[in-house]
Amino acid sequence: MIDVSLRGVRCRAAQEILDLDGTIGVATEGTIVYELEGEGGQLLHVQWDNGTSSLVSSEEIEITDRAVIWQ
Length: 71
Prior knowledge:
Blueprint: E1 2-3, E2 9-13, E3 17-19, E4 22-24, E5 29-38, E6 41-48, E7 53-57, E8 61-67
Antiparallel strand pairs: 1-5, 2-5, 2-8, 3-4, 5-6, 6-7
């Protein structure tokens, strides 16, 4: 199920994240697009400020206190 309640919330990588498009470095910031709830846990689709996007687990990111309005 897709949950958009966190849409527009700012986050950053809490650790280095390996992605198909490369590596997301520690402290790279981004914006949450949506959240998926599944058997394996919580996954979030993040649009990173460097122009890439990826699905990450909730343990791989930390929410920052800056929120943006999603357009």
